[in-house]
Amino acid sequence: MPQFRLTQISDTHLARRFKPLIDNFHRVSEHIDATRPDLVLNSGDVSFDGPTSRDDLVFAKQLHSALPVDCLYLPGNHDIGDNPTAVGPTPSQLPTEATRGAFISVLGEDRWHFDAAGWCFIGLNSLIMNTGLDSEAEQFDWLACALDKAVGKPVALFLHKPLYLDVPYDAERVETAIRFVPQPARRRLIEMFGKVDLRLVGSGHVHQRRDYTFEHVRQIWAPSAGFIISDARQEVIGIKEVGLVEYRFQPDSFEVRHVRAKGQVDVDLDTLLSKQPA
């Protein structure tokens, strides 16, 4: 029976100046070298500060290029900027066509779809949603075509931000709106995927490991491969630990394995930043 093995890493936040994060990435790389999946996906925040430092993107790409398997990428807010929400303050760095273009020029396409083991895999740029950028409308048009081709197959969706906290109709809150795909883009996405056999949504962004199912769709939040966020900065929703996620897809079924690479360390963000020169 054909199978497809995918390893999802997320929120690597790579930059030359953060040795603890580089060390954690090397531990992940060693695990990937030992397990040799068919594909590695970094689901966003590949770099520490892509919008203002192209070198962070370039350095992150160099490290990923040393992996022994092919990689795909999706942009996170630390790669291209954060999208505005209906509630809450406007992010200090909004996505632009320029920051998106810089991401694509270094890491490759910010959206993609392919078929493997009887499944349709779709990756989306969740950070341009709700921005009004031309690329947002283009992505929705592209998605409609991709979903037409996905009819009759189980579908796995990957994006940086989770769709929602618990249920699709969760209200946006000022304190947490930036954690999830913003409305009204979220509603539009859910309606579009309602026309296909969506089985899995894989995301990152929150730096907490979480695994639950709502209405036959399994929601996997990959933890950061790099660091954890203190309870003082962020409420506990799932499990605060570094790690990765391994998937094994077969026609009409899939398995999920939650993994911590040997030697990975729960680097605390506050400690990481306090060690940086002023």
UniProtKB/TrEMBL annotation:
One of its GO terms (molecular function) is hydrolase activity. Pfam families: Metallophos. SUPFAM superfamilies: Metallo-dependent phosphatases (SSF56300). This is Metallophosphoesterase. Residues 4-208 form the Calcineurin-like phosphoesterase domain. InterPro entries: Calcineurin-like_PHP (IPR004843), Metallo-depent_PP-like (IPR029052), STPP_CPPED1 (IPR051918). The lineage of its organism: Bacteria, Pseudomonadati, Pseudomonadota, Alphaproteobacteria, Hyphomicrobiales. It comes from Bradyrhizobium uaiense. PANTHER family: METALLOPHOSPHOESTERASE, CALCINEURIN SUPERFAMILY, SERINE_THREONINE-PROTEIN PHOSPHATASE CPPED1.
